[in-house]
Amino acid sequence: MRHLTLTTCSNLFRPRLFIARAATMGVALGVSLGAQTAIAQPSSSSARETLDRYCVTCHSDRLETAGLSLEQIDVANAHEGAEIWEKVIRKLRTGTMPPSTRPQPSAADRGALVSWFESSLDQAAADSPNPGRTETLRRLNRTEYQNAIRDLLALDIDSRALLPPDESGYGFDNVNVGDLSPALLDRYISAAQKISRLAIGSTQTSLQSDVIRVPADTTQEDHVAGLPMGTRGGMTAPYTFAQDGEYDVSIRLARNRTGNIGGLRGDAMHTVQLLLDRMPVATFTVQRPEGGDDKFADAHLALRLAVTAGPHDVGATFLKRASSLLETERQPLLSHFNEQR
Predict the structure, then answer these.
(1) Residue range 192-206: average pLDDT?
(2) In the chain, what are the helix, strand and coil shares in percent, each to the nearest 5?
(3) How many other CB atoms are found less than 10 A from the CB of residue 55?
(4) Which of 38, 120, 260, 312 minimizes the number of CB atoms within 10 Å of its CB?
(5) Domain boundaries in the chain?
(6) How far apart are CA 87 and CA 288, in angstroms?
(7) pTM for this one?
(8) At the topology level of CATH, where does 231-333 sit?
(9) What is the pLDDT of residues 215-242, one digit of tens each?
(10) Is the peptide bond between 98 and the residue preceding it cis, with omega within 30 degrees of 0?
(11) Residues 230 and 216: beta-carbon distance below 8 Å
């Protein structure tokens, strides 16, 4: 699958003007810095004094304007009322409090008060971090992973063959998916590697085989949905071919406990069709060997087939004969070709 300059005499005076302006700016900057350093560092006592002077007039225990009282709240331990102080900070920064009709603190006092609360809350959060709920992200379970691959890459994969089953709780298998162990992570990485090769194609030429199995109790008596009319039994399954090329496809008939093919009785000949995208690509016949040994009865059911890369439907089925030709002792049970059900 396969980023020197000649200047006139009049220009000699210009550098002096630039130097003078720079010196003037330096003096102004120095005065500004000096003024800032002259401001006293905010403290809990100064914060309380500012609150009592401009805020507690309305937000007192007696008035409790807007359901808020700042009269008894502890300023020194701002983290204990963090939710309230966050609201106070927003009001002070936007200038909505105190109201325009009430006395206003100076810009320095307002800035000192905001600085005190912000630094106190930030320090408390750093000392005792509280990230809240940390399990907001979880992995996809096996079914969700398969559906996500189908929706994103248009690939029908069998997640049961790629990933282990998920633990279930209270009847659901998507509630215990918060943890991702190293072993499970390896399985997801391995699955992602296989899926990516299917999605973008692969240039690897190494041999790889996949087996598509039919459950032992699947009936072989009647028509199977997805297969052509006039057929009985068999199976069809989606399969994604990694690249253009020739593929060896073989069919193996089910055996019973003794190693024999249960549906091969008498000398009757059965017709088997190999299908690609519901179209027959090969037709075989099979019947019970003369010696009764079914070991090599289906050895010839193989074909080398040229297939283009991408998803295809691969299937195999039997041509159905008229029911009037079937005369066996087990006919009332409608189980001519299944011994183990």
Answers:
(1) 78
(2) 35, 15, 50
(3) 22
(4) 38
(5) 44-127, 142-200, 231-333
(6) 87
(7) 0.47
(8) Jelly Rolls (2.60.120)
(9) 877 778 888 888 888 898 889 988 888 8
(10) yes
(11) no
